[in-house]
């Protein structure tokens, strides 16, 4: 595909890198002339234009008439909407615009954006709120990703030193493969696909594919159990913090701390069942006064990644059970995980996964860019004429850096076994490291 991306930061470059793995031809339009991003784009051999993408001349220079896809992911939604609309009218076949106003996603407004030539809207803030909500429902997991309409979950968890899994081989954990399967292990800075004889070690970070109805059995093997969320503290009253509070305040005791007095006045009018506190969440005395030790969950979603990490560390120190920071930069994810903060929200990864699936044909229904490791989980709907159809998994000859985790057939979730045959219309879940992604697509597209 010929793809043109208008971006002014990490999101645009990250989406470009993901799409380049599938041998798409990428043109990046960057209006900022940021040397850092320019050099990174050059290293990836992208065609770069430093100009304003809302100008028709810029889009024409980017050969927009030949573009199969135009993606606008700049920080401000107005230029994204304008450039996507212009790109459509200048010949781009499909357009995607990043937005920050969640109201634009309402069904009744879709016709207006369609008339403007915009095919898809992506709202990172709305996606972040959705991810946080899932983490509050499944308290024992660092991360949870739903596939096949929720019939299969990918669960990210640490193998604690006291876990019954420590020292066990993969084929000893669930020998009949009826409830879960480890997909990827992150150990000592490296990610690998585990084999049947792989032995799990304490402090391994593992992505598991789990059948939701078996989650309690799975958690008991990890030495974990879910607990109910009764008290939540949110730091940051921006769009994400406000929306999370709005979603939970009628069911959970909710406190929200924000340093801006004017914003707190507005929030107190909007959030009738949330206690709004004007103060600096980095103040230990304030956290103690607000009973941080009684919090079941602590959510830090300010505009500062440093503040979010610091306050989550304070929350952990004083007894909060779960702590979730919003991290703007992917570089901070490894830092956070190295100091014991594993449940993180990154809008770039969430947004990229949402966008990339639009480029991969009707066989791919979901793709998730995983937090903390360089891997992706893809959900394919097996096409009758694909290479994978009517073959057993062991016959596929898939590259070593990928694994078929499971599938849903006739609404029934199944954990994959090597002798299992793949049939048309199966929803198949595959984890792949970067060098295997293109090959995996060839089997299922």
Q: Can you describe this structure?
A:
This protein is α/β, with parallel strands linked by helices and 445 residues long. It contains 15 helices and 23 strands. Strands 3-2-1-4-5-6 form a six-stranded parallel sheet, sandwiched between helices. It has a five-stranded antiparallel sheet with strand order 7-8-11-9-10. The longest helix is centred in the first third of the chain and has 14 residues, at 124-137. 45% of the residues are buried.
Largest β-sheet summary: 6 strands, parallel
Give the overall shape, derived from the CA principal axes: globular
Distance between the termini: 15 Å
Strand content: 25-35%
Average predicted confidence as pLDDT: 89
Query: What class, by secondary structure content?
Result: alpha/beta
User: Can you count the beta strands?
Assistant: 23
Q: Residue ranges: pLDDT <50 for 5 or more in a row? A: none
Radius of gyration computed on alpha carbons: 22 Å
Main-sheet strand order equals 3-2-1-4-5-6
Tally of helical segments: 15
The level of helicity is: 25-40%
């Amino acid at each position: 595909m010929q793809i043109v991306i208008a971006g002014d930061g990490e999101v645009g470059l990250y989406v470009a890198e993901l799409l380049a793995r599938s041998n798409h031809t990428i043109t990046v339009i960057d209006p900022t002339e940021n040397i850092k991003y320019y050099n990174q784009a050059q290293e990836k051999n992208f065609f770069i234009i430093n100009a304003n993408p809302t100008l028709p001349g810029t889009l024409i220079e980017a050969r927009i008439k030949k573009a199969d896809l135009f993606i606008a992911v700049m920080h401000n939604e107005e230029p994204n909407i304008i450039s996507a609309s212009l790109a459509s009218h200048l010949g781009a076949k499909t357009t995607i615009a990043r937005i920050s106003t969640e109201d634009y996603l309402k069904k009744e407004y879709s016709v207006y954006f369609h008339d403007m030539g915009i095919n898809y809207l992506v709202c990172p803030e709305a996606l972040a709120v959705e991810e946080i909500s899932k983490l509050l429902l499944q308290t024992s997991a660092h991360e949870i990703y739903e596939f096949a309409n929720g019939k299969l979950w990918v669960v990210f968890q640490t193998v604690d030193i006291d876990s019954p899994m420590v020292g066990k081989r993969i084929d000893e954990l669930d020998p009949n493969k009826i409830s879960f399967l480890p997909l990827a292990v992150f150990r000592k800075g490296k990610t690998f696909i585990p084999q049947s004889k792989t032995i799990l070690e304490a402090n391994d970070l593992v992505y598991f594919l789990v059948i939701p109805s078996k989650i309690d059995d799975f958690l008991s093997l990890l030495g974990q159990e879910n607990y109910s969320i009764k008290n939540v503290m949110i730091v940051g009253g921006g769009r994400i913090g406000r929306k999370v509070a709005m979603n939970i305040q009628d069911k959970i005791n909710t406190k929200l701390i924000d340093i801006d007095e004017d914003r707190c006045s507005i929030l107190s009018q909007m959030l009738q069942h949330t206690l709004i506190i004007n103060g600096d969440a980095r103040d230990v005395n304030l956290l103690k006064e607000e009973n941080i030790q009684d919090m079941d969950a602590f959510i830090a979603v300010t505009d500062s990644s440093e503040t979010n990490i610091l306050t989550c560390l304070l929350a952990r120190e004083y007894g909060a059970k779960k702590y979730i920071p919003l991290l703007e930069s992917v570089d901070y994810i490894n830092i956070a995980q190295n100091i014991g903060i594993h449940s993180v929200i990154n809008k770039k990864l969430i947004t990229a996964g949402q966008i990339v699936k639009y480029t991969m044909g009707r066989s791919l229904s979901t793709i998730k860019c995983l937090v903390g490791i360089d891997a992706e989980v893809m959900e394919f709907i097996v096409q009758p004429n694909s290479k994978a159809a009517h073959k057993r998994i062991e016959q596929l000859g898939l590259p070593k850096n990928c694994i078929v985790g499971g599938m849903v057939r006739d609404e029934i979730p199944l954990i994959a076994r090597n002798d299992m045959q793949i049939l048309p219309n199966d929803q198949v879940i595959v984890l792949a490291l970067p060098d295997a992604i293109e090959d995996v697509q060839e089997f299922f597209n």
